[in-house]
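Hey,
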Amino acid sequence: MGRINVGRVVLCGIIAAIAIDVIGGIANVVFLGGWWNDAAATMNQPPLTIVQIALFKVWGLVVGFAVAWIYAGFRPRFGAAHRTAIIAGVTTWVLASVCGCFAAAIVGYPLGLMIAACVIGFFAIVIGSLVGNYFYQEA
């Protein structure tokens, strides 16, 4: 079993994060923007601030690094293939998106909105994993 190439994990994590942020950000604004605003208003929350948007970008970077690291760990067991990137993406999606949406539903965000956000998260993270991990190499 080879050692994890940390430099490539960082590179792939950044690439995956960009894909996750672009796909997730656009899809959330286009498809769920009004629903997010209504839910926030119902909970007496103000619209998103620049700081909160920046923190979502940091979250995307953390998820990107996580999916790249998980892929690097799975690769010796499942092989260097798109299937492995998909498995790493689904694993990361469960840990990041499903758990986050579940927690938001617990505190009062509408369940339908959280399910829709999880679906968007699924596609964003799995596609981000495929794009980012395409560039991973062991040595």
